[in-house]
Write a structure and sequence with these properties.
- By secondary structure, the protein is an alpha/beta fold.
- The strands form 5 sheets. The protein has a 7-stranded parallel beta sheet, sandwiched between helices. Strands 2-3-1-4 form a 4-stranded antiparallel beta sheet, sandwiched between helices.
- The protein is built from 12 helices and 19 strands.
- The chain has 2 domains: 91 residues, Alpha-Beta Plaits (2-Layer Sandwich); 324 residues, Peptidase S8/S53 domain (Rossmann fold, 3-Layer(aba) Sandwich), CATH 3.40.50.
- The longest helix is centred in the C-terminal third of the chain and has 18 residues.
Length: 463
């Protein structure tokens, strides 16, 4: 007996218009925040046409994974033959294949650095490096700020008591087609990222322990394809609909199972991919988007990936607790010459909580990013009337290399949360001592500042 194998591929189908507009796809919280920050509701806020989607399903599309109101299209599954037929429909503007049957490969973007048991709990030091502790002491810990942590696996994130799910977790979304349970054994990377934001345990304290959060999975476990970038777009759009304030994602894309999809470095301009465009749209819609720079500094690719190249976001590099750059932290600038990474946080031997509840150490810009996102949430909770761009501006202006940014490794450097809180951004930032004359070092378990022949703690008190 002969068996006919039908191969289904994944496509992104773009529509010509939105003929059946009704209400914008925004929650009451999202609408309230748009009004608060004077962000106009526009065509991007209306959902895609249900009539068009019904027509696709009647014309050979076997499954619609998700929609994109920002790009007026759908991610869907069908055969190559049906794609050619659907291309002829009068409401279809474009069709782009985003996943085929290419065998899975091994990619730089998939590298996850190993974790190890922590001999000491140094969360105070990783928070002190960007001077967050004074904000905690003043009572600001991310309250009334809503966050998204977007990743590839959240093993046991629903059972670890250190996350206080009943009080803080508002829900989870899976934008992949993986079949395992959301909190199952696909991976623990997202759980570890979440821990540096919200974890509380003996000797361990997160950066924004009172912020509420959504968990979203966009990373497919066994493949690497442009579909994952559209999964990430779905996570960004959903977060926007929910009124999320801070979005943290420790993922990046450049190389794929199909070599033909590998991005040229010239595409790292913040505009060439939908994924990076979406990160910028999210920022313009009022969200502070924090993206890992990548861990390719020691490999052939070396540079950032997408959406780390996006405009108006915070791309985060990794430093040690003594403020020196991690050798693996990906290089900038963006293809069009913008400073990347924007800022840095502790991503070398970051203190984390593993799914078994133990405190461990791990390295990667993956962990620097949620640390920085947690700082942003805490700062925003102290300045609730400011918008995302103002909070971003404070973080960048407070960084120790703001006056002389390093366009390849540090960007604007390591932010100072307390300075960011105190500064008057309308009057300009406080004067910085040049980085040549000032440096931070780890002495025992304490970070101290060396300025000339004098030493200070992170509150500026001379020692």
């Amino acid at each position: 007996m002969n068996l006919l194998l039908v191969i289904l591929h994944v496509f992104f189908v773009t529509f010509t218009d939105k003929p059946d507009k009704s209400a914008p796809a925004l929650s009451p919280r999202a609408v309230e925040q748009r009004e608060k920050w004077n962000i106009q509701i526009d065509n991007l806020d209306f959902p895609v046409s249900t009539l068009y989607m019904d027509s696709l399903l009647k014309s050979g599309v076997t499954k619609i994974y998700h929609t994109s109101r920002w790009f007026n299209g759908v991610t869907c599954e069908m055969t190559i033959e049906n794609a050619e037929n659907i291309r002829q429909l009068d409401f279809v503007k474009n069709i782009e294949i985003t996943r085929d049957d290419s065998p899975a490969g091994i990619f730089y973007a998939k590298r996850k650095m190993p974790v190890q048991k922590a001999d000491e709990n140094w969360t105070d030091n990783q928070l002190a490096l960007y001077n967050l502790l004074p904000l905690h002491e003043a009572g600001f810990e991310g309250q009334d700020i809503l966050m998204t942590v977007c990743d590839g696996g959240f093993y046991k994130a629903n059972t670890l008591e250190c996350f206080r799910q009943e009080d803080l977790e508002l829900g989870h979304f899976d934008f992949t087609d993986d079949t395992d349970d959301f909190y199952g054994i696909t991976g623990a990377h997202g759980t570890e990222c979440l821990s540096v934001i919200t974890g509380i345990k003996d000797g361990f304290y997160g950066a924004a322990t009172r912020a509420k959060y959504y968990l979203m999975r966009s990373e497919e476990n066994d493949t690497e394809s442009p579909k994952e970038m559209d999964n990430l777009i779905a996570a960004l759009e959903t977060s926007d609909s929910l009124g999320v304030n801070v979005f943290s994602v420790s993922l990046g894309y450049a190389m794929f199972d199909n070599d033909g999809w590998t991005l040229p470095k010239s595409a790292l301009d913040g505009k060439s991919t939908r994924c990076s465009q979406a990160a910028t749209i999210a920022a313009r819609k009022g969200m502070l988007v924090c993206v890992a720079a990548g861990n390719e500094g020691e490999y052939a690719w070396q540079t950032i990936s997408v959406p780390a190249d996006a405009d108006s976001i915070l791309t985060v590099g990794a430093v040690r607790a003594d403020s020196t750059i991690g050798t693996f932290s990906s290089f900038g600038p963006s293809a069009d010459g913008r400073v990347k990474p924007d800022v840095c946080a502790v991503g070398v031997q970051t203190t984390l909580i593993s799914p078994d509840g133990t405190v461990v150490k791990g390295s990667g810009t993956s962990f620097a990013t949620p640390l920085l996102a947690g700082m942003a949430a805490t700062l925003w909770s102290a300045l609730p009337n400011e918008n995302a761009m103002q909070i971003r501006e404070r973080i960048i202006r407070s960084a120790d290399r703001y006056a002389n940014p390093d366009t390849k490794r540090y960007g604007y450097g390591i932010p100072n949360a307390w300075m960011a809180y105190q500064m008057d951004i309308d009057e300009g930032m406080p004067a910085h001592t040049s980085p040549e004359n000032t440096r931070k070092i780890l002495q025992g378990n304490q970070i101290i500042i060396l300025r000339g022949d004098r030493t200070y703690d992170l509150l500026g008190r001379e020692l």
